[in-house]
Amino acid sequence: MTVHTRQDPRLGEFALRTLDPDADAALLHRWVTHPKAAFWLMQDADVAEVAAEYRRIAAHPHHDAYLGLHDGAPAFLAERYDPAHVELVGLYDARPGDVGMHFLCAPTDTPVRGFTRAVITTVMDWLFADPATERVVVEPDVRNSAVHALNAAVGFEVVGPVDKPEKTALLSICTRAGFRAATAQGAPA
Q: Could you tell me which of 45, 14, 19 has the C-alpha nearest to residue 30?
């Protein structure tokens, strides 16, 4: 089921649909085990393990996964979670209206300039389309400089490093006003 669409003025239509853990497992496996997805921490997973992980997410009351489409074709993965219950429990001062986010673009041999920024803009537009969302919270690996630059481009402000069991993360937060100012977005699409 499609949950959000956004028309990018340069790159066309982006959409998010609910992920099907079993039907989408082989596709996701190619993405999450690709060398460019090292920070996704699933490099050694097989297809069955990927399906099991996304079934676990689908069953979780505070975590959801979505397949992102570009002009109708699978192109990215997005996850939404409640950071008071998943990923950041006890690691920061959670507030009502906080939403956690992960995203991953599919690997490609033909990169399109501005594509990843269009993806993160779409994901943020989707999250802020919910009036209950006040802030988006992310916790990428401190070494992931490419995603830090993307986060800054859409309005995230760095809070600082937090130690998680699997990594040292760079906690960053984006408010609705920060997103709109950084991307010149009006009301959510």
A: 45
Handedness of CA 169, 160, 99, 175 (dihedral sign): negative
Average pLDDT over residues 77-93: 95
Distance from C-alpha of 10 to C-alpha of 115, rounded to nearest angstrom: 10
Would the pLDDT of 185 be above 80?
A: no
Phi, psi of 8 (to 5 degrees): -85, 130
Taking residue 166's Cβ as centre, other Cβ atoms within 10 Å add up to: 8
What integer pLDDT is reported at residue 79 of this predicted model? Answer: 97
Question: C-alpha distances in angstroms, 58 versus 18, 32, 61, 65?
Answer: 9, 17, 8, 7
- Helix, coil or strand: residue 154: coil
Nearest in space to 70 (alpha carbons), one of 111, 128, 127 = 111
Please name the residue that has the structure tokens 């993965």: 77
Q: DSSP code of 187?
A: S
Count CA atoms closer than 13 A to 61's CA, side-chain side.
2
pLDDT in tens, 150-173: 999 999 999 999 999 999 999 999
What does each C-alpha distance from 9 to 12, 20, 114, 171 come to in angstroms? Answer: 6, 29, 11, 30
Q: Does residue 68 have a pLDDT over 50?
A: yes
Picking from 149, 78, 74, the residue whose alpha carbon sits closest to that of residue 107 is 74
| 9 Cβ contact partners less than 8 Å away, ≥ 6 residues apart | none
